[in-house]
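Title: Prediction job returns without error message
Component: structure pipeline
Severity: low
Priority: P3
Assignee: unassigned

Description:
Job completed but the reporter wants confirmation the result is attached to the right record. Sequence as submitted:
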Amino acid sequence: MSSYILSIDQGTTSSRAIVFDEKLQIVGISQKEIENFFPKPGWVEMSAETIYDSVVEVVKDVLIKTRIMPIEIKAIGITNQRETTIVWDRKTGKPVYNALVWQSRQSNDLCEKVIRAGHSSYIKQKTGLTVDPYFSASKIRWILDHIEEGQLRALNGELIFGTVDSWLVYRLSNGRTHITDVSNASRTMLMDIDTLQWDKKLLDIWNIPASMLPEIKASSEIYDHTDFLGVEIPIASVIGDQQSALFGQMCFEEGQCKNTYGTGCFLLFNTGKKRVDSKNGLVSTIAWKIGDEVYYALEGSVFVAGSAIQWLRDGLKLIETAPESEDKASLVPDSGGVYVVPAFTGLGAPYWDQHARGAIFGLTRGTTREHLIRATLESLAYQTYDVIEALENDTGISVKGLQVDGGACRNNLLMQFQSDILHAEIIRPVNFETTALGACMLAGLATGAFSSLSDLRLMYNVDRRFEPMISIAHQSRLVNGWKKAVRATMEY
C-alpha cells in the first residue's frame, strides 16, 4: 500500500489541502477561498467556524480527487496564517468573536497605550518583536474588551485563545488537545523566545490570564490524532506558514534566506541556533524546533504584496485575473516613473508605521493603466529590497541569492525586476508549494517517513534562476525614487 502525507495550509484568503508522496511530489491539491470581513477601515476579520469547515471540506475533496484512502495517509502536517487570533469557549468550543486577522489594525490604541507605558524595550528583549497590532497579544486583549464579561470569563477559565494552528488541532482532536508550536507562539508577543515559555510579565502587561494559553510544543512531533475521516491519523507537525516555507525551501543552515510572495511578503533569514536582534526594523523569531534543537530567524514582514494585485483586480477593476497583471505590465518597458506605495494597512518592516496609508506618485498625462499595473507589481520588489537592506545592515552579510516562493513568484516579469533591484540571483524552485511542503517534511520526520534533513535536501529542484540585467547606476536611480515615495507616504 502506498503512503502519503497530507498538508493543511490554512491561509488568509483560502484553505488548501495538499497530498505529497514519499518523494515530496504533489499528488493532489484542493483549495477553497474564504471571505474576509472589513467592518471598519483597517479592520480585517474572518469566521473561525468557516476556517475549520473549509479545512474539512478541502481535505475530503483532495482525497476524493486522488482516490486515496484515509488509511494511506500516514501523517497530517498543519501550516497556518500566523498571529490571527481566535478566542473560544472552553466547554462549548464555540468562538466568542470573529477571528482577528494578522492584518487587522483595530487594536492600534491598545498598542499605543502599552508603548506610552514604557513597555516596548521589555517586550522587544523578551519576544524579539516590535509592539504592533500585527501580533496576537493586543488582539486577545481587544476581544476580551469587546465581548460581554470577557475578562471575568477569561479569569474564570471559561475562555481559551489560539492562533489558527491551535484552533485546528483543537477541533481536529475533538477538543482534547490545546497546543501551539514554538514558531506560532513566538508571534503572539507573549512568549520569551529564549526560554520558550509564556512570560508572566508579558501576560501582566496585556492583562491576559495564563489559563487561556495553549501548551507550547515542538514543530515536529505527534500531538494527537484525528478521526473525522474514519481512521485515526497522527497530527504530526504544526508550524507558522513563513517558517514552514523557510523549511520547505531547504534553508536548514545559518545564512540561508527565502522570500514568500503571498498576501504579504515575508522574508526569513536563518540565524542558526542563536538569536540575532535587529537594529534596523526586523524582528527576531523562532524558525522551528525539532527534538531539542531550536533554530532562530530574522524576519521582515511586508503587509501588502499579493493583496495589492487583488486590489488591482477587485478594487480598481484594471485586470480580470491576477496572472493578467504580468501580461498588461509587459506592454510597457517600465513604470513611466510611477511608484505605488501599497500601505493599505500601514507599513511593516522595516518602517513599522501603522498610520501610513497607500499612495501613488509620479503620475503624468502619459500614465496608462499598464504603467499603474507595472508600478504595483514593482512595489513588491521594492518592499523586499527594503527588508534585504535592513537584513544586510543587521548581519553584515551581502545577500547574493534569494530563494523565492508564493503565488506571485510565478510572475516572470516581477522576478526579473526583483533580481534587477536586489542585484542578486533569484532562485525559484520547481515546487512552488513550499509552505505546505515544509509542514509535510516536518510531519514526515516526526513519523519516520523521512530519516534526515540531508535526505530531504536531495529532493530540492530548481525551476529557474533570474540574474540582474540592469546597471548599478540604473538600479540606484530606481531605488532612490522608491525611497522618496515612501518618505512622502510616511510624512503625509
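Comment from assignee: result matches the submitted record. The CA atoms of residues 41 and 279 lie 31 Å apart.
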